[in-house]
Predict the structure.
Amino acid sequence: MIKTLYPFAQKWSERGSVYLYSDTHFDDHDSKLMDPEWPDPQVQIDNIRAVCHKNDTLLLLGDVGSPEYLKQLKCYKVLIAGNHDPGLSNFAGYFDEMYSGPLFISDRILLSHEPFPYIPYVVNIHGHDHSGTFRDQHFNVCSNVIGYKPINLGQIIKDGTLLRDVPTIHRYTIDCI
């Protein structure tokens, strides 16, 4: 279990791993404009299935495209809606949890589709930016930026690099006074 997460998010890791992925754009015709090598939806599904199994959780940070492909995934699926995603009702039955906007999953980790402006005591895990531009305390999991393979959240927390330079809100407040 990932103990640094809030209790509602810890349940995602009770029986397996938690994976991050964004911007699948399944069957979106303009995806080839972002990357001429954009893989077919089935390739992305196969890449997800290679690492994300029945007891795991997939956090999909928006811009899904056609949700039909998600039926092939046996994992627990959580959606943070993106700018290309129509209303959440269009994804009913495809996701186990859905959020229409940003979500804090710990005191220092914010999930969102679009990158948030710099918040000194938060690391923002997001998608949306297909250019791969990285900014301070932003972690871009846009599919084409991460090689079309999901990232293991527990692993990036354990290696210490994700939160190493991110103070808590209390430390930030104390240091700024």
User: Anything to note?
Assistant: The beta strands are 18-21, 57-60, 76-80, 97-99, 103-106, 109-111, 123-126, 138-140, 151-152. The mean pLDDT is 91.
